[in-house]
Amino acid sequence: MRTKQKHINISTVIPLTPIISHDNPVFTMELFVSTFVNKIDRKGRVSLPSIFRSALPKDFKNEIILLKSLKHKTIEGFSVIRAKEIAARINNLDFFSDEHDDFTTSIFSEMLPTNLDKEGRFLLPEKQKDFADIKDEVAFIGQGYFFQIVNPKVAIEIQNRSRTRLNLNKKTLGKILRGSDE
């Protein structure tokens, strides 16, 4: 006797931890979650939180891409795969448009591929530290498919501002999961 299997629409499920689908072992969903503060050592290196390292794709475990944020005085970090997704979306813009030029120049000229050493540390360049007003410690803020590297005091401001904005606009996680804005 065959039983009906219940299918879940994946676009309505937002996992909070990395998962591997048992139905499709090729499909993995890795997310950068939580907030951590780490010190920068005297050589200018900082350790990527282990939970963030475990969210990196298997084939690119030792590489992250760093980029100055277009929205905040933060550095955005993500995987090589995410960089390729960004490139594909920019590639869909009209090649001769100002928008295409602005994105390609602002994104690709600022991307910095960075390798992690065996302890999970990477060098945070002075130019990026100056941009984000980072001195001797950094906060890593998980953002799902990317993370932010920011001055720890600014991290608290960003988190408080985001929560306040959601509350003022009466946005809830339930509304997102239902796909409604009511």
Overview of this structure, please?
This protein is an alpha+beta fold and 182 residues long. It has a single domain (18-152), classed as Chemotaxis protein chec. The protein contains 6 helices and 10 strands, in the order E-E-E-E-H-E-E-H-H-E-E-H-E-E-H-H. The chain has a 6-stranded antiparallel sheet. Strand 9 (137-142) and strand 10 (147-150) form a beta hairpin. The longest helix has 17 residues, at 152-168.
Count all strands and give the number.
10
CATH fold group: Chemotaxis protein chec
- Mind describing the biggest β-sheet? 6 strands, antiparallel
Mean pLDDT: 84
Distance between the termini: 43 Å
Number of domains: 1
The computed structural class is alpha+beta
Tertiary shape: globular
What are the segments in which pLDDT stays under 50 over at least 5 consecutive residues? 1-24
The ordered string of helix (H) and strand (E) elements is EEEEHEEHHEEHEEHH
What is the overall number of helices? 6
> What is the assigned CATH homologous superfamily?
Transcriptional regulator MraZ domain
CATH C-level class: Alpha Beta
